[in-house]
Amino acid sequence: VLPMGVLTIDNEGKEMAEIREMMEAGAVAFSDSKKSIQDSGLLSRLMLYAKNNDALIVLFPDENQSPVRAL
Question: How far is CA 41 from the centre of its chain?
């Protein structure tokens, strides 16, 4: 069994967690469990950070946005 850390503080999807510190403590992957991150900017920063630090991200795809209606 290997430890997994959170991507965002308190799994709220609002602010990036201290991934580097969790990696140093032994975390091998990062996720917000079955909660999807709705903020595309935050998700982009997380993915870039993971790429630059050889971290593994586990995501649960789920988009809670309303569909766009065509007029």
Answer: 11
What residue type is assigned to position 54 of the chain? D
Distances in Å between the Cα of 58 and the Cα atoms of 29, 30, 49, 66, 67 are: 7, 6, 14, 24, 25
The Cα 65–Cα 45 span in angstroms is 20
Residue 69 pLDDT: 58
Structure tokens at 66: 């309303």
Mean pLDDT, the chain cut into blocks of 10 residues (71 residues total): 94 93 95 88 94 91 61 52
| Residue of 52, 54, 51 whose CA lies nearest to 23 | 54
Per-residue model confidence (pLDDT) at position 33 = 85
